[in-house]
Amino acid sequence: MLIGSNSWMSGAPSSEGPAASKGRCAPGAALLALSALLFVAAAPALAQQTQQYPNGQVYQPLRWDIEGGYSITQGAASQYLDNGWTVGGGVDWFPSPQSPLGLRLDLNYSQFDATHQLLYQSSLQAGTQINHGIGRIWGGDVDAVFDVPVGPRAHGYLLGGVGMYQRQIELTQRLLGGGYFCEPWWGVCGPGFLPYNSIVSRTTTATHFAWNAGAGVEFPLSPVTSLFIEARFMRINPADQRTELVPITVGLRF
Question: Does pTM surpass 0.85?
């Protein structure tokens, strides 16, 4: 069990040894398989004659995304994790130039610092001082995307879907280690002490169901590349350990 008494922090941690990973389906493996299916489905469209939109962009049935930004914690999660950062990537599929409805597959990783409240409660329960903590969330989504024209040089879109995610909490304490050290710049060596981080607890949850919904705006940069800004609301189960986030990202689509 994770250090702390709140239900958001509790749950049966998964073992991180090689044997524990047998029989578990990783979110990335499923999404890679779905990506392969998209390539097969898009093959006829790839053979079609190139079509250009009024904004100068060329229709592509498959487009890749890379993105990064700021992730805002919500609800119970905000009591234990500060706002953090997120990165991700994926692929979009639109079956025809006339269709406003498409499909997106993406993978995401987010990282957050622990709040003072989490460090304090964990220190009390562990009976030792905990100086720092990190929350990590990773997984993938399958989303429906609906294009909405907003102007001659930009278009908006709505998206929503489901995914599978894992969460990890790592708590550490700052210690001093003694030894014989050398200063590389001056070449001075001698006995001394250096601070280092010692892991007190690291707990990883099982893979849980998630859903998300959001909107974005896309601006063309070239016939095949565009800049997009996007915001989503994301909720990760289970209900008694619910994690809610609002990732706001900027990325390239090509």
Answer: no
